Structure formats: C-alpha cells, structure tokens
Amino acid sequence: QVQLVESGGGLVQAGGSLRLSCAASGRTFGSWAMGWFRQAPGKEREFVAAISGTGGVTYYAGSVKGRFTISRDNAKNTVYLQMNSLKPEDTAVYYCAADTAPGRGSYGTSYVYDYWGQGTQVTVSS
Questions:
Q1: pLDDT per residue as tens digits for the range 48-88
Q2: Are 68 and 48 in contact (CB under 8 A)?
C-alpha cells in the first residue's frame, strides 16, 4: 500500500515562500511520476506541477510557472514543491499524488494518479 504524507503548509504573507514536502512509502518510488494539485474553497481541484520519475522532466500550470519549482529526492522517497512569490490566490489545500504506472495520460490530469495524500493547507495573506 502506498502512502503519501504532505507537510510544510502554513500561513505566509504575500510575496513570501514555502516549501512543501511529500514523503512516500513504496520501494519503486523512483519509477513513479509525482504531481502536486490544489483545491481552493468552492473551486475544483487543479493541477499545479508534476515531475517524472528521474526528475528530468517537469510540468507546471501557467499560473505558477516561474514561481514554483517541483523537485524530488529518490533516495529519500520525497517530492518537494518550492513556492516563491506567493499570492493570495495561491491559498488552497495542496495535495501530492503518485502515478505508479506512467504513460497512461497527461501528468496534468488527475485521473492518471493512483494515490493521493491527505493535503496540507497553504494560506497566503494580503
């Protein structure tokens, strides 16, 4: 059973930074694509960023490109989301997700992900 545990959320002022972490269980973590999604109150869950198993390929939503950076440490079974220049509209619950069989579809679509974390709250004050 795969488990994903996010951490690093919190309250930050606009313009500030946070780094989210997602620790995964599983012996084949290095072969999984990993993604970050977020859901704001009253809105649908949306794609934020994704990274291939080796870390060599990354994808970003247009709204975060240039401000957020996704990375991974396969030795630690952990994926990160560095968030800089945060804006109030970045306020949401952030979820990490694992695609344990990459190649079934676009990393930006939630249906390719098999496992999800419980989420961590990020609140950006103006």
A1: 999 999 999 999 999 999 999 999 999 999 999 999 999 99
A2: yes
